[in-house]
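Box 3.1 A note on notation
Throughout this textbook, protein chains are presented in two layers. The first layer is the amino acid sequence; the second is a token string describing backbone geometry. Keep the layers aligned when reading.
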Amino acid sequence: MVAMDYFVDPQHKRLRAEVRRFAEEEVEPRVAGMEAKQEVDRDLSRAIARQGWIGVTIPCRYGGMGMGHLAKTIIIEELSRVSAAMGAMVQASQLGVAKVIHFGSEEQKAHWLPQVASGDCLPTIAVTEPESGGHVLGMTGTAERRGDEYLLNGRKWFVGNSHIGDVHGVVLRTGEGSHGLTAFLVESDRPGFRLGELGDPFGLHGFSFGEIIFENCRVPVANRLADEGQGLDVAYSSSILYGRPNLTAVSLGIHRAVVEDTVRFCRERTVYGKPLGQLPNIHLKIGQMQSRLMIAKLAAYHATHLLDGGLPCDAELINAKLINYEYATASAKDAMEIHAARGLQRVHNIERYYRDAVHIYAPAGTADIQRHRLGQVAFGTYGQDWSTRLAGRIGCSEAPAEAAVGGVDALGGAASASW
């Protein structure tokens, strides 16, 4: 697929070539094993982290790449083209990066960001709870202030990188209502922290998005992110500014693989003495898939281009997630029909692409949530954009960033930030 030169520069192109080479040489040979074992691939996750790509949005002064969100999209897209599980691993780690960049103190940034950039630390964000699901304000896990410490109790699930994460960005209840949530950094080796169920996922084999549990887990006040009561800000901003574009990139990578593999199959498969792709009905399906892919990529790159520029783009990020999920699954369904019975065979990968794509539906808000938000945009009732509110902190600038301040936007409802 021809690169969109309007959005990318030579540095982006070099990055794409680097990630693609690694994905094809190092990741692809391990995909079959991840599918067969259906276990978390810790070694491969760490190998990817050591490439420095999780630090793509981390400023250079903290050891990061300082390349921004479009570069992040390219990294996740190229990995997801080969393994959506590993693309999901990187996107989940980026959610963990977001909370420290935008809400961490200078001491927290100086401590954690260089470790993330070097690949020595995998961060997560943990918001979703079993009972409340995507309704962030419905969470019941608690953090009780006791002198210079907080006592944490509760369960989080669907936590991206749950079973390989080193530090978890956790949002818990410290009071009532929307101003009663607070965020913390919790190390995975801290007493009172333990792992729960990994789950039995439909797809994304090799990636962990399971449960973490806090049982009288003590963390110092120094581990609190921003002020007490700003937890909702942490959850929503991470979900909107990072979660939606990250998941968009996973969908885009899957979509590319679907189209590329199906075109290859149609060239190689002979029916009635000619390549399958020459049959008129098949040719039309491929054309529709290509059209979806072009629209999806445009939506993804346009949104992150605006984000890197510090411009208002909440609506574009929302739309990109919606379009990329729905188009990727629609093309995967078409690919299954084109492959017919062969589509059910693992050797052709199409059933894996379909299973992996379905996983993108719920995180950072379902398709209906995205439509609800876009309806608010249309009626002028959406409220303040997070991309506007954090405009000075989401570009590639090397200027120091302070923690976001102020009240909670009236976004309400399900915008789950986990994984």
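The mean pLDDT is 91. Residues 233-393 form a domain with the Butyryl-CoA Dehydrogenase, subunit A; domain 3 fold (CATH 1.20.140.10).
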